[in-house]
Amino acid sequence: MKTLCLILLLVSLKAFAEPYPQADAAAGKTLVEKNCISCHASSFGGDGSVIYTRDFHKVTSAKALVAQVRSCNTMLGLKWFEDEELNAAKYLNTTYYQFAE
């Protein structure tokens, strides 16, 4: 019984730690590489990833990351669906931010 409780606790903690549990980071990577990198590179130089690694972050939480992805989606007229926004957010979170909320 104790083992079962421990397993359930660990599973629930893992689900809590992942802010986008249903999203697909691989699909998000494809979307980011196709749509985001060129804009970020033209604004920040290099490969554009400095926007994610700079000292001053606009994005400070998992919720704010999704909001920023949605903002870019709207500004660029990408017409991504919500699941695509979450895929991109999961990729960015996994690769750069590591938000656990």
Structure commentary:
69% of the residues lie in helices and 0% in strands. The chain has 101 residues and is mainly alpha-helical. The chain is globular and about 55 Å long. The model has no long low-confidence stretch (mean pLDDT 86).
Termini gap: 29 Å
Report the strand count. Answer: 0
Number of DSSP helical runs? 6
Strand residue content: under 5%
Radius of gyration: 16 Å
Task: Report a brief summary of the structure.
This protein has 6 helices and no strands.
Descriptive labels:
single chain, 101 residues, mainly alpha, 0% strand
Q: What's the helix and strand layout?
A:
Blueprint: H1 2-17, H2 25-35, H3 37-44, H4 50-53, H5 62-76, H6 82-97
Helix pairs in contact: 2-6, 5-6
